[in-house]
Every structure is written in C-alpha cells, then in structure tokens.
Description:
- The chain is α/β, with parallel strands linked by helices and 392 residues long.
- It is 34% helix and 24% strand.
- The chain has a domain at 123-269 and 316-391: Alpha/Beta hydrolase fold, catalytic domain (Rossmann fold, 3-Layer(aba) Sandwich).
- The protein has helices at 2-37, 123-127, 179-184, 215-227, 240-251, 270-280, 285-296, 300-304, 342-350, 368-371, 373-391; strands at 47-52, 56-60, 71-75, 80-91, 94-104, 110-115, 132-138, 141-148, 160-165, 189-192, 232-238, 258-264, 328-333, 355-360.
- The longest helix has 36 residues, at 2-37.
- Residues 1-18 form the signal peptide.
Amino acid sequence: xxxxxxxxxxxxxxxxxxxxxxxxxxxxxxxxxxxxxxxxxxxxxxxxxxxxxxxxxxxxxxxxxxxxxxxxxxxxxxxxxxxxxxxxxxxxxxxxxxxxxxxxxxxxxxxxxxxxxxxxxxxxxxxxxxxxxxxxxxxxxxxxxxxxxxxxxxxxxxxxxxxxxxxxxxxxxxxxxxxxxxxxxxxxxxxxxxxxxxxxxxxxxxxxxxxxxxxxxxxxxxxxxxxxxxxxxxxxxxxxxxxxxxxxxxxxxxxxxxxxxxxxxxxxxxxxxxxxxxxxxxxxxxxxxxxxxxxxxxxxxxxxxxxxxxxxxxxxxxxxxxxxxxxxxxxxxxxxxxxxxxxxxxxxxxxxxxxxxxxxxxxxxxxxxxxxxxxxxxxxxxxxxxxxxxxx
Length: 392
C-alpha cells in the first residue's frame, strides 16, 4: 500500500512539474512573440558626450560610436541634435569624431542617444526641402504623411511618385536619407506613418502586424499619390518597411501601378530573422518558433495581442521568388546584425532577371547609406533612372 501511495505521489508530482514546465515555456514563447510585435516606445540614452570642440566631439566608446560613417546624436532627451562624421581617434574608451553640424540645442557633455538616421526633424528642417504635412485617410484613421515636391526638371519622366516606408519601431526620419537623391531625380515623395507608430492611430493594443496589416495603410498613401496625379509609383522601404511593401504588391489591387521597389536591409523571410533574434536572446530556436506559431493560432494570437491570426509563411519571398514581377533594388550589408542578409542574397540568386543586388560590409542594419552615402545614392540613382526611363 505504501509503495502504491509513493508511486501515485511521484506520478502526480511529475504531472504537476510537467505542467509547470510547459506553462513556463509557453510564457517564454509568448514573451518572445510579444517582443517581436510590440513597438519599443522608450529609447534610453546609450552613450555620453564627454567633450565638445569647434570641429570635433568626444564620445564614449560603444559598438556604434566606433563604426565609420555619418550619424547623428540626440541630446537633452531628444531636444538637441548634432551630426558626426569620420572617426578621428579611439583611445582608452573615448572616441573622437568629426563634428559636422548642429541641428538643435547646444552640444555639451552629458547623456545622449545615437541616431543612425543621421538627419533629424522634418524634410524642411533637416534637408532644406520644402514639404507639406498631410493627413491621409486610411482604414484605421488619419495617417500623418510628409509630402515633398520634386525638383524640376528631373532625370525621371513625369508622373512617377515615390512612397517611402520606414521599418519596425523606427520613425519617418529613417527615410530622410533617401529624399535628396529622389528629389534630384524629379520624383515627388510621400513619407507616411502607419498604424501603431507613435504619431499614428493605435490598434490591437499597439501591436505590429509585421507587414500583414500595415500594407493597407501604405495602400491608402499610394491611392493618394494616384489621386494627386501620379501615373506610377516607386516604393522604397527599410527593414520591416520592405515586408510591408512586398505584401502591398502581392495583395493590393493597386499593385499594377507600382513601377519598382528599392529595399534597404529588408525582411524577406520573418522566420530567418526571428530565428536569428532567438539565438541572440539565448532562446532555443524551437521555442522561438513555438511563439511564432502562436501568432497564427486563433487563440494563441490573443495571448500575444495581435490584430488577427498572423501567418508568417506568405511573407517568405525567397520561397515566393517565382511570383516576383517587379524590378527590385536590394541593398544589404553582410554585417547586418538584426536582419541577416542571407534571404536577400538568395532572392537575388533566384531572380537575377529582376533583382539588382548591392551587397556591402561594415554597415549595421539599414546603415548602408551611413557608411558610404555616395555608393548608396549612386546605386539608387542608376537603378531608378534606368528602370523608370524604360518603364515610361
């Protein structure tokens, strides 16, 4: 009798332990999935300004501050901003860089935050390009949008407009780097926010749809361009912005009015990206995949809080390479530590007839322009002017 009681107790304990372990693992999977779809609103300071001179600034050494190229630095909680260039010296945890300009505030020692966009503010303040602030009506409400008229005359035939789409957790400022070359080419540009951006309508508890829902917001902006006189539209996207645009050309009835795509560090396969992110966070890939399956499950998605079941499989554009029908310029660095460049390379290999691939090194995620602005702009200028001239 005693033996049976002990065995029964052991079995019950094992059952409870298994249940608790399963619940804990599910909790980790749900947490991972939530992190993927939740915009990060808090962006804390990540470096210090140690010294400021007339033409140089000394910063603490971080993984960002030692990388060559052009970048910005926010100070005073975002109220101040200055731009830096070449690394002049790295000594004892101190990085001296060229000070290229001050956009707001007065640079002084103190806490600061790195800005990979280089520019800050709107097109007029940052670039001296005239712009209008629009509110484009979409299915979730009014979407803030910058409208930047074209320079005239340009190298691209009239009637082509561009829509520029930032990535996950970013802002419209991410697109500022591309405006000068498109403006020079004679292309009017629209730069929208989309659902769950800080300045746009919030839905589904503020969770992103990873492109599965946001494409409809961009579709509304494309429709605005067409209603305003555009004949064809060039789509330009960074990171998740690329995933959004690829869903638009796959699912929108307006896809036939799209002329080409320019994608910088795009998400072409969410599973590839999120497997990489799971490894970075020391989460077993299989457990991360479980979290992603929850996104697609009618009940599991409620635990995560997304708008509706989210199936990432149709967003694998390496698998769907044969469906691609538009010219694409792909710019991607092999040093991208957030969205690995493997899917971009594989798509370029699968569709050399449509994909122009511009690889690079050294640059972190969507920082190809920062490391070599001339190379980035030359690639975009050549692709856009050639492709759209042929399309005319």
